[in-house]
Amino acid sequence: MITPKEIEQKTMSPEKRKSAKNDYFAFYIGRPLTYVLTIPFLYTNISPNAVSYISFVPTIVGFVLLAMGKNELALFGGWFAFFLWSMLDGIDGNIARYKKQFSKMGDTLDAAAGYFAMALIFFGAGIAATNDAACLLNNWFGSYPNVYTIFGGLSGMCTIMPRLIMHKAMTSIGSKDAGGMKDRTHYGVVKILALNITSVPGMVQILLLVCIFTHMLDLYTVAYFFINLAVMVISMRSIFKG
User: Fold this and answer.
1) 36-62: b (≥16 Cβ within 10 Å) or e
2) Nearest Cα to 66, choosing from 200, 209, 240, 228?
3) Radius of gyration of the chain (CA)
4) Alpha-carbon span 20 to 28, nearest angstrom
5) DSSP state letters, 196-229
6) Angle at the Cα of 55 (from 117 to 79), degrees rounded to 5?
7) 19 FRET partner, CA 20 to 30 A, in 94, 135, 137, 209?
8) Which among 44, 55, 171, 190 is positioned nearest to 113, based on CA atoms?
């Protein structure tokens, strides 16, 4: 019988562990959950690429529920859909490494699904903040409610932009780790803190859940816009400097 421990041993190399463990919630909570959820998939012929394709569905559903939800239950459903994406994002990699089914298309699909989720979770949160009349910052932005949608959309762009530029730099100039962004093993305290705060499978989802039930999606959206903007500027500086 396949066990979570066996999956961990076959999918987590020492090098990968050093890099992954800096994302605390994703490594210590999310990843162990994916080991358990991967087990049923390993008894089927479902390929890693098929799981990657499937992972687009909860991302779209999550965005729609956040954007159109009128109550906490609908917004919670949107959050849960993004949580399901994060589980599938781990499951496809577990299957690939366990069964040694690697492909360039698989890497592309995994990255595309990730970028899709990163952009839409912040955009969806911004629209949800616009629709929530009980938000905290309405005294400041009450006359301009669509400002949260703008902040959310820009926040999503700031999240994926450095990653797109990093991968372009890696393919164009042959750098294996443009700006030192890809290799997390040598991250200092500041980079580790930024990684955890901006981790979509980690703190981003935890805080989103809290803010849904405390009606602080406006604060969440504005705060993450400035955080993601700062991380983008610093990351791009490192890439171009490197």
Assistant:
1) ebbbebeeeeebbbebbebbbebbebb
2) 209
3) 18
4) 10
5) HHT-IIIIIHHHHHHHHHHT-HHHHHHHHHHHHH
6) 55
7) 209
8) 55
Whole-angstrom CA distances from 197 to 12, 63, 174 are: 23, 21, 30
Q: What is the span of the domain harbouring residue 234?
A: 4-145+152-241
The Cα-based distances of 78 to 68, 124, 128, 178 in angstroms read 10, 9, 10, 34
Decide: helix, strand or coil at residue 172. Answer: helix
Q: Is 199 within 8 Å of 122 (Cβ atoms)?
A: no
pLDDT tens, residue by residue, 111-170: 899 999 999 999 999 999 999 877 776 666 656 768 999 999 999 999 998 888 887 777
Helix extents (H) in 43-71? 48-68
| Other beta carbons less than 10 A from residue 102's beta carbon | 11
**Could you tell me the CATH number of the domain that includes residue 225?**
1.20.120.1760
**Phi, psi dihedrals of residue 217, rounded to the nearest 5°:** -65, -30
Two tokens at 96?
A: 């690939």
Q: What is the C-alpha separation between 42 and 29, in angstroms, rounded?
A: 21
Contact (Cβ atoms closer than 8 angstroms) between residue 22 and residue 188? no
Domain count within the chain: 1
